[in-house]
Design a protein that fits this description.
- Its EC number is 2.8.3.19.
- This is Acetyl-CoA:oxalate CoA-transferase.
- GO terms for molecular function: transferase activity.
- The protein is of the alpha/beta class and 372 residues long.
- The protein folds into two domains: 9-206 and 327-350, 3-Layer(aba) Sandwich (Rossmann fold), CATH 3.40.50.10540; 246-309, no CATH class.
- It has helices at residues 18-28, 57-62, 78-81, 83-88, 100-103, 108-114, 139-145, 166-190, 200-203, 209-217, 254-264, 277-288, 293-303, 313-317, 320-324, and strands spanning 9-12, 32-37, 51-52, 55-56, 67-70, 91-94, 119-124, 194-199, 236-240, 246-250, 307-309, 331-334, 337-340.
- Strand 1 (9-12), helix 1 (18-28) and strand 2 form a beta-alpha-beta unit.
- Helix 1 (18-28) crosses helix 8 (166-190).
- The radius of gyration is 24 Å and the shape is elongated.
- 33% of the residues are buried.
């Protein structure tokens, strides 16, 4: 089967999540991805739980189908030993703090003297320049600095952590993939490579486009958890049923809101949710909490009003809809077991066979293959 990236070689110096997920997507589209890992323990994700037969599931699902070289980049002659790979590589992905690759002799300027066509992608929290370029951080810090976390961070007494790794994946992985593919397309025209500066904190801004329009451009205040898309309106928020399960009400459009109000028999004088927002929210909550989620689920489904019961990850994976679409049909081998592979937003037409269950590599598994 021909794949879009089956002639692309990627050298992956990244660890943990943003870079490895990006190179996983490249591998799934046919690229040959070679991970460079430190000898002994390998990259940090290999040590994370849960595990099967001593193998990290997190590492396994993020590094499926890649190759691994164990190499101490600080050792004498280490960089020179990579010269032949660098000369024929198409893409390098690295995730160190700014300046680290330069100190190792693997910075962009050094690499492009060996390979002028290299697409060199650097993923960091704050970018290669600016006052915060060297500041340490994780996803929560980046979405906090981007103003996204302030939009829905819980109450003063009970702060709430972000529900997903918005900066890591949305600000790191996806921009990296998008710009690598754009750079490869540009290289087709110019035969020149480029250094891509991916800052996870900057990538997070796009996830709150409406907050940019309202809070930055219009200068209007945005209350924590109190805006149109963060629970401020009765028609777009979470409500608890009597069994503790939550109902996700997303009835923004009037026709959906009317249908939802009919399901719960909301009094007419409260259906204008802008007249007295607190009263409407309180009454909706009071009506939903008296019945279990099993009562509401079929009624809401029949009403087709953008209102659903919140699923656990395990329930979502077993949902007949995702089963019908074969969302979790791919598997990855971990030790002696096969587990569901991570669903990726790549069209099936560009990926390998569903039956392909390639495992993540053992540490240094390909050292001999590449003469190291």
């Amino acid at each position: 089967m021909t794949q879009p990236l089956d002639d692309i070689l990627v050298l992956d110096f990244s660890t943990l999540l943003p870079g490895p997920m990006a190179t996983l997507m490249l591998a799934e589209a046919g690229a040959e991805v070679i991970k460079l890992e430190r000898p002994g323990s390998g990259e940090d994700m290999r040590l994370t739980e849960p595990m099967i037969e001593g193998r990290s599931l997190g590492y396994a699902i993020l590094n499926r189908g890649k190759k691994s070289i164990a190499l101490d980049l600080k050792a004498e002659g280490a960089v020179a030993s990579l010269r032949s790979l660098i000369e024929k590589a198409d893409v390098i992905v690295e995730q160190f703090r700014p300046g680290v690759m330069e100190r190792l002799g693997l910075g962009y300027d050094a690499v492009r003297t060996l390979n002028s066509k290299i697409i060199y992608c650097s993923i960091t929290g704050y970018g290669q320049s600016g006052p915060k370029r060297d500041v340490a951080g994780h996803d929560m810090n980046y979405v906090g600095d981007a103003g996204v976390l302030s939009l829905s961070s819980g109450s003063v007494d009970s702060p709430t952590a972000p529900f997903g790794l918005i900066a890591d994946i949305g600000g790191g992985t996806y921009p990296a993939i998008m710009n690598i593919l754009l750079a490869l397309r540009q290289r087709d025209k110019t035969e020149q490579g480029v250094h891509l500066d991916i800052a996870m904190s900057e990538g997070a801004f796009a996830f709150a486009y409406w907050a940019h329009a309202k809070g930055v451009i219009a200068g209007e205040p945005i209350e924590n958890g109190g805006d149109r898309l963060t629970g401020g309106r009765a028609r777009y928020r979470l409500y608890s049923a009597s069994d503790g399960r939550q109902v996700a009400v997303g009835a923004l459009e009037q026709k959906f809101w009317d249908a939802f109000c009919n399901v719960i028999d909301l009094p007419r004088h409260l259906r204008d949710d802008l007249a007295d927002p607190a009263a409407t929210k309180a009454e909706v909550a009071r009506r939903i909490v008296v019945k279990p989620s099993a009562h509401w689920a079929p009624l809401l489904e029949a009403a087709d009003c953008c209102c659903t019961i919140v699923k656990t990850p395990a329930e979502a994976a077993a949902d007949p809809h995702f089963t019908a679409r074969d969302t979790f049909g791919r598997v990855v081998s971990v030790g002696g077991e096969q587990v569901p592979a991570l669903p990726l937003p790549i069209a099936p037409e560009f990926r390998g066979a569903v039956a392909d269950s390639r495992a993540a590599p053992d540490l240094g598994e390909q050292n001999t293959e590449f003469g190291l």
